[in-house]
Design goal:
Length: 139
């Protein structure tokens, strides 16, 4: 439970309380407007408490996630000092993307495809002549 009393978590608790009270207050304000004859406010009177419930749901989910992570860390056995193997490196949850250079693949049999070469010449001609139509190709 002490993980939930860090400065970051205290800010989350305060934000949750402020948002829920604010959303419920706005919902009550819409109820009073709806009672005064504004029919559109009936929808908003329902919407604001739903927003408050969503804030409570997200807060509760984060609390459970934090407590579950703390429990899992406590149950992980300590590595034995007798093991001479390299320590296992934990895989990060988010990894950096791998950059791959793309090069054209060589034909499997080593012989160029004549139709493919002609098509590539056609595409190169179209790229070099942006205003041309495909029927203008001289090849």
């Amino acid at each position: 439970m002490e993980r939930l009393w860090t400065p970051a978590w205290i800010a989350r608790h305060v934000a949750m309380v402020v948002l829920v009270v604010g959303f419920l207050g706005l919902g009550w304000w819409q109820v009073t407007r709806a009672a005064g004859g504004n029919t559109l406010s009936f929808g908003y009177a329902i919407e604001w408490p739903v927003f408050a419930a969503f804030v409570v749901f997200v807060w509760w989910r984060e609390v459970r996630h934090t407590l579950r992570a703390a429990r899992e860390q406590a149950t992980v056995p300590a590595p034995s000092a007798a093991a001479d193997a390299e320590p296992a490196v934990a895989t990060p949850a988010v990894r950096r993307p791998v950059r791959v250079s793309r090069v054209p693949a060589a034909p499997a049999d080593g012989v160029d495809d004549g139709e493919l070469a002609a098509y590539n010449r056609y595409l190169s001609w179209l790229n070099a002549n942006p205003g041309a139509r495909p029927g203008d190709y001289p090849g």
